[in-house]
Amino acid sequence: MEHLAVELLEHIFTMACTDGGFTGCSLSLVSKHVRAASQTARFHSIALASGSPPQVAQFTACLTTARAESTGTTPRVRHLFLVSAKRTIELQSRPKDEDDTERLKYIADVTELLRIIAPKLYTFCVIHGHRPLSQELHVPFAGIRCPLLREFTLVGSGRIDGSLATGPSPNYPSLTRVHLWFCGLGHTMGVHVRFPQLWTEHAPHVTHLRISNLGYLASDVIHPIKALALESEDICSLPALKRLVVQPAPGPAPGGRCGNPYTAYGRFLGNLQEMRHQAKRPFALVEAGERMSDFEGPAMREWLDRVGGGPGCWEFEAFGGEEIPLRSCTPRAGS
Fold first, then answer.
1. Whole domain around residue 155: which residue ranges?
2. Distances from the Cα of 329 to the Cαs of 86, 155, 187, 296, 326, in angstroms?
3. 34 burial class (0-12, 13-18, 19+ CB within 10 angstroms)?
4. What is the pTM of this model?
5. In this predicted model, what pLDDT tens digit does every residue of 196-252 receive, in sequence order?
6. Residue 279 domain-assigned (yes or no)
7. In a domain, 312, yes or no
8. Is 298 helix (H, G, I), strand (E, B) or coil?
């Protein structure tokens, strides 16, 4: 290995560093030569999922040092998996924004990291809004521009609207696949009826849109989905969209009150089936999965599969003349 060209080693190490950072850390401990030769590749895919508020700032400092010391290709993060941090002290009441020092520090840390890596980022998976508000520090989105971003996955139920896409020009001109993965029956990241317009304006080349774990109470997003499927003229649709995939959330929990929830859920599934039959665009309806309490683990597995060249949640097969996703993001009932 000592006699191999550095360019060859960089290529080999890049192909190996697709596990979110573990291999990169291991390579840095092998020897001085391997540490230097793998400096670029070590940051190829990074997972910041500890939930610790200082982790983002610590990684940013590490990346900044590596970039300053680099004598060859500048280390770049191509794939990022980011989980929102947990508060060190759970709030008893919501403080004023200017008094929430822990939140302000976390926003500044994440903003600085994204400022450094966003121009060269290929895939980005974010998990936030999946904990109680009193325990979580949300990931900021305002002002992010990722010109090379190809795939974006957002998991959770935190608010996302116009703050995700700001500025006069498209923030995501290369984005082709968007996956919105909800964590609650009626909480859908604040996605409102304008979400197709927002993505059309800032990600005009999206070809695949997947919405997973869609709750039967999520009326704020069902109408836009229907408009996209039917190419309705009352909502500006994604012009390049080739595939729309929807996975409903599981039904009401057993043992609860009977009547309206079960009736509403049945009506919800019926509407999705009707939507699929009437769709003017390719529309795939995935079987509802089981209830989940852990979204981070499954999301990490999907992201790692994509980084490693796998299909992730975009795997399809021919079935009755229609392409049906093979993989649900949530395990199917009974599996």
1. 44-325
2. 24, 11, 18, 11, 10
3. middle
4. 0.85
5. 666 777 888 999 999 888 888 776 677 788 888 887 765 657 888 888 899 998 888
6. yes
7. yes
8. helix
Tokens of 207: 């070809």
Question: What's the token pair of residue 9?
Answer: 């080693």
Most distant pair of Cα atoms in the chain: their distance: 73
Answer yes or no: is 319 within a domain.
yes
Nearest one of 179, 226, 246 to 206, comparing CA atoms: 179
Residue of 243, 232, 172 whose CA lies nearest to 210: 243
Q: Whose CA is closest to 216, among 253, 162, 241?
A: 253
Region label for 20, one of left (φ > 0), alpha (ψ between -120 and 50) or beta (otherwise): left
Q: Which of 73, 47, 71, 72 is nearest to 59 (CA)?
A: 47
Q: Closest Cα partner for 297 from 20, 22, 59, 78? A: 20
Domain count, the chain: 1
Q: Residue 311 to residues 154, 214, 290, 307, 308: CA-CA distances in angstroms?
A: 17, 21, 21, 9, 9
